Amino acid sequence: MGAAAPDGGFWGWVAVFACFMGNVIGDGVMYSFGIFMPKFKEHFHCGSGEIATVNAIQMGVTFASGPLASLLTNRLGWRLTTVIGSVLASAGFALSAVVPNVFCLYMTAGVLIGLGLGIIYLPRVDCITQYFDKKRPFVTGIAICGSGIGTFLFAPLTEWLLEHTNWKIALLILSGICLINCGFALLFKPLPVCQEKEKDVCEVMLDHEEDDKDKSVNKDTFKEMNLLLRNWVFMVFAASNFLTSLGYPIPYTFVPDNARQTGLTGGQGSFLVGLIGISNTVARLLLGIASQKLHRLYLYNTCLVICGLAMALTNFFQPISAAMFSYDCTQFLTNPTSSPAFNSTAEMLSAVDVNNSTGLLSLPWACDPYVGQLMYAILYGVTSAAYVLLTTLVLADLLGADKFTNAFGLLLLFQGVATFIGPPIVGFMFDAFGTYNEGFILMGSMISLSGLMLYPVPCIMTMLATKDKQPEEMELLEEPS
Fold first, then answer.
1. Closest CA to 185 of 319, 298, 85
2. What confidence tens digit (pLDDT) does each residue in 224-252 have?
3. Rounded CA gap, 19 and 9, in Å?
4. Given this model, what pLDDT does residue 426 score?
5. N-terminal to C-terminal alpha carbon distance within the chain
6. Is residue 181 within 8 Å of 82, Cβ to Cβ?
7. Contacts of 354 (CB under 8 A, 6+ apart)
8. Helix/strand/coil (H, E, C) string of the chain?
9. Cβ atoms < 10 Å from Cβ of 226
């Protein structure tokens, strides 16, 4: 029989640290991978749609490998599963440095890296979920903060490596960094098993994960997943996650290239990705605290609605700010007939360069496209933190901790399929329209819809619970005294 969550202890807090560092490395390299996109486009002579498919496959496989990660975690334990995933991710980065064409890149940078990162994701989250109960929101917030910090660190690191070496050497360096996760895997100590021999103390530790494993683990895992697919609460939540996942990877994939397209520098583009990461980190801590006081599901829904609006307005924050504060930015355009929301960024920056060279005033903040992008990065980073942090907490609240491992693994499959679809759509829309605005608006709408559709869930659950309870009450009343 399984052990009760100790809600702390030495190995519990060590697991939180290991999960934090695993998120720093795993999510750091994944969410900063879009910085390679301009280099890949140049080297392989491909459009945004083709290269965006690499990121889509990588993130898609990462999430879609959830059921496999669940199976490996149940059968092999947290430690060995994490080691296997770390080695696969490292191999994917190394092989990506020597591929001859973009189709091979789909396999190495897409499938292999994605599979490795996906396998190591679930065991570290599941570990702290099983170790903590009352403190679960707080420690989950701490551990998952590693994702934002990792993005903040790896985005400028990747840009620095590309500037001072080349993209192939950068991939090899990241390959070596991924292997560090093998060391952190050893810190995931298995929980004890409670023995019912006139004692309430858990004495038998699962240090030897090969001893007496139930041969029916595979069957039980797939049986429970099949039952979850018939659970309407899980399916509604999974559909919402599918819509969220269509848009969630878009900034990490396209913000660096969108920055270049709008006239910003590569350094500014990588800083925007890092800013999303660090604002995401701060928000996770705050949301972790807020989720203990507020209704988690409603907090989650509201953040998603705002997050979707932020993405839809990615390149519109600057013109909106100019209109709100009554700034006339047309005087800074080299071509006043162009639309400020779509094509004028590079023209305004060019005008600033001319003004600076002639000693004229610089561009006002409300007319500076970089300021608009900073607004978007902060707002998206803060609100998207709910998706990363509260998904696991809300799932545990709705279905219970006993079903969490398989439910989360199955949920990752839905997320993976959506993640595979979203980025290529935006990439091919860019190839067709010449801007990212149409794709950002579409995917932002999907994220907002994913939040809106979950608002009725608590009411429906209450109604159904009341309806099921009434026949039982009637039976009790009809029983003879």
1. 85
2. 778 888 888 899 999 999 999 999 989 98
3. 15
4. 93
5. 39
6. yes
7. 360
8. CCCCCCCCCHHHHHHHHHHHHHHHHHHHHHHCHHHHHHHHHHHHCCCHHHHHHHHHHHHHHHHHCHHHHHHHHHHHHHHHHHHHHHHHHHHHHHHHCCCCCHHHHHHHHHHHHHHHHHHHHHHHHHHHHHHCCCCHHHHHHHHHHHHHHHHHHHHHHHHHHHHHCCHHHHHHHHHHHHCCHHHHHCCCCCCCECCCCCCCCCCECCCCCCCCCCCCHHHHHHHHHHHHCCCHHHHHHHHHHHHHHHHCCHHHHHHHHHHHHCCCCHHHHHHHHHHHHHHHHHHHHHHHHHCCCCCHHHHHHHHHHHHHHHHHCHHHHHHHHHHHCCCCCHHHCCCCCCCCCCCCHHHHHHHHHHHHHCCCCCCCHHHCHHHHHHHHHHHHHHHHHHHHHHHHHHHHHHHCHHHHHHHHHHHHHHHHHHHHHHHHHHHHHHHHHCCCHHHHHHHHHHHHHHHHCCCCHHHHHHHHHHHHHHHHHHHHHHCCC
9. 11
Tens-digit pLDDT profile for residues 261-274: 888 888 888 899 88
- Closest C-alpha to 258, from 440, 381, 380: 440
How far, in Å, CA of 212 to CA of 236, rounded? 37
Side chain identity at residue 69, one-letter code: A
Q: Extract the tokens encoding 33.
A: 């991978």
pLDDT in tens, 415-431: 878 888 999 999 999 98
CB 272 within 8 A of CB 255: yes
Residue type, 318: Q
Q: From residue 405, give the alpha-carbon distance in Å to each of 73, 84, 165, 216, 217.
A: 9, 18, 42, 16, 13
Short-list 73, 9, 35, 33, CA closest to 268: 35
Are 40 and 162 in contact, with CB atoms under 8 Å apart? no
Give the mean pLDDT of the chain.
81
Q: Rounded to whole angstroms, how far apart are CA atoms 141 and 399?
A: 20
Token pair recorded at residue 99: 């591929």
